Amino acid sequence: MNNLEWLERINVADVLATAATRTVVDTGAFKLLLDPVNDFAGMNWATPLKPVPTQAEIAELCEVFKAHSRTPRLEFIAQCWAGLGETLERAGFRSEGEAQDIMIVTRVTF
Fold first, then answer.
1. What's the CA gap between 57 and 88, in Å, rounded?
2. Could you tell me which residues come within 8 angstroms of residue 60 by beta carbon, excluding any fewer than 6 positions away?
3. What region does 54 belong to: left with phi over 0, alpha with psi -120 to 50, or beta?
């Protein structure tokens, strides 16, 4: 399995694990994972469902966050979503910090 395949598996596992304790709202381009009681931004986020959302889809994302009294925030692995960061920046989003490395241990190396 190559690095991108591993990253995609990590992304899916993260979303599935988080969804177990969140209110999940799917829009056309995003899956929102909203904590039902905590409005802290780090507990409420969206992940992309398609690589190039339209401005209307980004606006819909923001409206759903607003309807739940939450701050629009996304989490995604940039290597899995080429160009998404730039698209979101053009729509007014900003990065919270520098990209973080992801480390994994496979069954073989564990």
1. 11
2. 27, 28, 29
3. beta
DSSP at 37? S
pLDDT confidence of residue 87: 94
Integer Cα distance of 50 and 39 in angstroms: 26
In the structure, what pLDDT confidence band is assigned to residue 80 with cuts at 50, 70 and 90? Answer: confident
Name the residue type at position 30.
F
CA distance 82 to 94: 16
Two tokens, residue 103: 């480390």
Token digits of residue 93? 């989003």
CA dist., res. 32 & res. 46, Å (int): 4
Element (H, E) at 32: strand 30-34
**In Å, what is the CA distance from 88 to each residue of 35, 48, 63, 70, 83?**
23, 11, 15, 18, 9
d(CA 31, CA 85): 16
